Amino acid sequence: MMNSGGGNQWNPDQYMKGAMGDLRTRPAVDLLNRVMHDAPRRAVDLGCGPGNSTRLLRARWPGATVSGVDNSPAMLEKAADLDDAINWHLSDIRDWQPEPETDVIFANASLHWVPDHAALFTRLALALPSGSVLAVQMPNNFAAPSHTLIAEVAERPEFRAKLAGKLVGDFVQSPAFYHGLLRALPGAVDVWETEYLQSLTGADPVLEWVRGTALLPVQQNLAPADFAAFTEMYRARLRQAYPTGADGVTLFPFRRMFITFTVD
Q1: Phi and psi of 135, rounded to 5°?
Q2: Entry pTM
Q3: Shortest CA distance to 134 belongs to which of 21, 4, 264, 2?
Q4: Nearest alpha carbon to residue 107 among 75, 71, 129, 137
Q5: pLDDT one-digit tens code per residue, 190-248
């Protein structure tokens, strides 16, 4: 969970609220299943948030030194409360460097907050020793109504100036971009996408989902009254885009991109 939008406004309870916790953890499980390393010396969860994905690393590799890194004190406090056997560090991805003997960098839903992916991915990949793995999962749902409707409301005259260039998703490139970038380095790259058909329940469940992520930059850059007005406009549009079925279920398709790079 790292910059650049609302880094210190992260709410771990909202992020993992109800069934959303399992849905946000599932991609981390799917990514971890494709990390081919039997016994890393150090494994780092980069942008660990509340530690749900970090605990997966510790369970997979009990003999490794496992660390979680995040720039949100609230997220790290929640993570430490749940597992104090993991090393938790407050840092920003843009400044972070792996310690020696780091064999796995695992970044689940964090790097899309960080700019300049060409430099970022190259720096992380080249910092790892031979046989190590860089594993990344990022949302790639920015063309879906959940995100385009935020941009639509943000273009209204009362919000445009305050939100210009502040919305999440601007840094994410195409799958081919990452494949080409990493293919040029010494190692093996794998890139794929999965669209999860998520079943949400409750009142305005898609709004509740994005409150914990994509709405954070909006909240950070608007006064409370303006954010409340923005939210109501957005809520009305979401209800049309994601209708609730007669059984109370709202289907929320969510596309994610997965990347692994194994260093030669």
Answers
A1: -125, 125
A2: 0.90
A3: 264
A4: 137
A5: 999 999 999 999 999 999 999 988 999 999 999 999 999 999 999 999 999 999 999 99
All structural domains of the chain with their residue ranges? 7-263
Handedness of CA 127, 33, 15, 84 (dihedral sign): negative
Which candidate, 87, 102, 95, 9, places its Cα nearest to that of 48? 87
Pinpoint the alpha helices (H) of the chain.
Answer: 12-15, 20-32, 52-60, 73-82, 117-126, 145-154, 157-163, 175-183, 205-211, 216-221, 224-241
Average pLDDT, the chain: 92
What single-letter DSSP state applies at residue 7?
G
Give the tokens for residue 219: 């909240």
Phi (first) and psi of residue 119, to 5 degrees: -75, -40
Tens digit of each residue's pLDDT (9 = 90 or more) over 183-197 = 999 999 999 999 999
The rounded Cα 210 to chain-centroid distance in angstroms is 12
**Topology adopted by domain 7-263:** Rossmann fold (3.40.50)
